[in-house]
């Protein structure tokens, strides 16, 4: 095996299974194609950067609420109350409006796979799994986390 073949073998291993499959001719399509969503623009799957930005905004808002209104300055309880406020806010706002303040600022919303508003129980299940964190970081090729797959939801741009 010469050096070029070694570099190719190492490069395919480093680039991951998706790249190797694409080299073999597998077409994965764009994010959201399997769900019938457009590739770009309104209604397309929201990028990960926007979703993380929305999560950070929501978390900071909930932390501010927990620190200022609920925990009364007791820094030991701020983390717990932040999670409680985040959970309640996510269930209520995603279940009714389809977005939280952070999602609204980042111009994304949560809808069901059918395009309708997410129901209350789906929003509840999604929020429980989101608060567990691990299901949110395990995602599919459409970049939908496990919490979205269980709730049959998708985050889209608007």
Unreliable sequence segments: none
Q: Count every beta strand, where a strand is a DSSP E run of 2 or more residues.
A: 2
What is the mean predicted local confidence, pLDDT?
87
What is the share of helical residues? 55-70%
Chart the SSEs and their pairings.
Elements lengths: L2 H13 L1 H7 L24 H23 L7 H19 L4 H5 L2 E5 L7 H13 L1 H4 L8 H6 L1 E5 L1
Antiparallel strand pairs: 1-2
Please describe what this structure looks like.
- This protein has 158 residues and is mainly alpha-helical.
- It folds into 2 domains: 1-29, no CATH class; 31-157, no CATH class.
- The protein has 8 helices and 2 strands; from the N terminus they run αααααβαααβ.
- Helix 3 (48-70) crosses helix 4.
What would you say about this model in short?
With 158 residues, this protein is mostly helical. The chain has helices at residues 3-15, 17-23, 48-70, 78-96, 101-105, 120-132, 134-137, 146-151, and strands at residues 108-112, 153-157.
């Amino acid at each position: 095996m010469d050096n070029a073949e070694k570099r190719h073998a190492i490069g395919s291993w480093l680039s991951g299974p998706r790249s190797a499959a694409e080299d073999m001719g597998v077409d994965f399509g764009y994010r959201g194609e399997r769900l019938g969503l457009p590739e770009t623009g309104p209604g397309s799957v929201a990028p990960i950067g926007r979703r993380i930005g929305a999560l950070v905004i929501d978390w900071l808002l909930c932390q501010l609420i927990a620190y200022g209104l609920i925990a009364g300055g007791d820094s030991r309880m701020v983390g717990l109350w932040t999670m409680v406020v985040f959970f309640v806010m996510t269930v209520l706002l995603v279940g009714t409006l389809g977005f939280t303040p952070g999602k609204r600022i980042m111009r994304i919303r949560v809808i069901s796979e059918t395009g309708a508003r997410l129901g209350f129980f789906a929003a509840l299940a999604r929020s429980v799994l989101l608060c567990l964190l691990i299901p949110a970081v395990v995602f599919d090729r459409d970049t939908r986390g496990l919490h979205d797959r269980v709730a049959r939801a998708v985050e889209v741009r608007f």
